[in-house]
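not sure who needs this but someone in the group chat was asking about tRNA (guanine(27)-N(2))-dimethyltransferase from Aegithalos caudatus so here u go. i didnt clean anything up, its just raw.
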Amino acid sequence: DGLVVSEKVKSNDIDVKVPKSELEAEEKAEEERPRESDSNILDLSSDYPRDKHISIQRHLADLEKLADLREDERKPCPLCPEEKFKACYSHKLHRHLQNLHWKVSVEFEGYRMCICHLSCRPVKPNLVGDQTLSKMGAHYHCIICSATIVRRTDMIGHINRHVNKGETESRFITVRAHKSSYKVVKESATDVQVLPNHSTPQKTDSYFNPKMKLNRQLIFCALAVLAGERKPIECLDAFGATGIMGLQWAKHLRSSVKVTINDCNENSVKMIKENCHLNKMKVKLNIKEEDNDETVGNGEENSDTIEVTKMDANVVMHLRSFDFIHLDPFGSSVNYLDSAFRNVRNLGIVSLTSTDISSLYAKAQHVALRHYGCNIVRTEYYKELAARTVIAAVTRAAARCNKGIEVLLAVALEHFVLVVVRVLRGPTPADDSAKKVRYLIHCQWCEERVFQKEGNMLEENPYQQLPCDCYGSMPGKTAVLLGPLWSGALFNTGFLRRMLLEAVQYGLDEALSLLKTLVCEAECTTLKHFSTHGPGDENKQEESGVYIRTPNTSTESYLVHGKRKSEEVLRSTAKRQRPEHSAEHPPFYYNIHRHSIKGMNMPKLNKFLNYLSEAGYRVSRTHFDPMGVRTNAPLAQFKTVLMKYSAPTYVGAQAEGPVHLPAEIQLGGEVPAAAAVKVEEAELAGDDEPGVGSAVFTQSYPAHCAAD
């Protein structure tokens, strides 16, 4: 009987009166009836949504039906409590519903979410009384997730977030949006579908950052170099998101790589598979999914296959072995380093991108100590300090697995820190790598720095290791101990040159200019001396007027197959690496603006590099800082050369005291001509550095000199 009553009530309209006994019988029947399946909930043939709140209506007439307006009776407002709005006649109630509820509603797909004043929303108790309580209880009911939002603008933003995430079809049910709501982005001949909020995603959304294009190009070049050493290689993108990186690997390197894209988010995995279909790639399915999903390709000759997995990144790296692993999680990568080095093959490559720059760049020093076990402070070379902090954590994780590392590349830019290392299996390489993790002594007065000497013996005065004498001339303690940090090289010149060739081959323009700077920085040389060779050199290529020596694969490439490497090959590798260590680039750099002299105009940066080189020091620019100088010169010699070739700013110096002109400038009528010549020479120099030495050469004269 209860079931018959329930069907009778459903067949009636909302304006039909139902006796109270029948309503109680219906509620009892609803409790006893089994719950409908989710497939029925998603059926959109019925009125959407099925269990909406009474404040959500399509038309104003539907809202008036709730009030049961009659001219001869007083009726209360269905969306207001009696203490807020007393019962009134139909004409007044109609104006109340129209002006207070309907006009301030939020519209979505033909429905209006009217403001509700009922006691649906829990309100904190207060001492004022019921009037304030009812005023604070005004809210909106979300048509999708049944949330209660107070402000109208917040409700609009709440609905937009549902739309961006694809949750637009049913209440409490997360459903993918239609394909037309996605945006297709193209990068490096690869198309990917992204959500409309890909630039500002939620925590559960797939993330695509166009600003990381340079990062993706550098990783692709590193993988292309490894693919030239041995084929095929198994590579893993542990945090796929949209799958853009793995798709670029498979699309350009083809049969040289076997790509696996992993993500633990179900929505991201679905998006990765759709992007594989969009780029005409086959998807290698799991056994459980073979019956439901279909692969791409109607008999065409496309043999490219990408394996897509839905697991935790640590689980994937524990279960399988890879030649190339890339880690790019949200924030720090330290939670995945042990798993990455557990099964990575010998002479394989592990690359990791860290985006927790607030801790790495010493803005949150306690977080750096917690994640990396490293004490750092804000210095002029903070970006290189961040790179060495990450490499130190990588070294310790590899050493725990009896593996050593060779740093191939370390880049620290505005948004990320990228580290690429080669894995060397065995306890001997692990011990050699662990010995390069040392502490750094940093002077807080002049910012001079030096790595602490090797050994376990305590020194009576560790300040003696610093080249500066700030400890003797300044009161108190002047230096801090930073680290432990990686003290070895940050770049491998041969590997960078091969990456440069790959960037030329695939037309990666953004990575090309950076790689040229990195090669110069690795060799600690200026750009004009970059890879210039005689005409008899057979292994060279020319690109943009720059000769690039191609590596001799018989001596530089690792072409050894199998799990274990023989002792002879290890010895030959060590012998080849010895001359590189002797010419290793000096650690850290100096900022020319940080050490400028007050009242002096600095020389152009390229000219200053030449002056340091003429003084007998190794110099180069650095990608860490556009105004940084990497050199093996001590800070005192650096300042001496800078002072020697800096010109006084005569305008500022005239106000303070007499001007001492340089010896080559003579007094009299020839001074303006000499000044004009210097200005013209500075303009014709053609240096591109902004802001250095660009002040106009001006001179103010006393009144009697002007009269003469």
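also The mean pLDDT is 76. if thats useful
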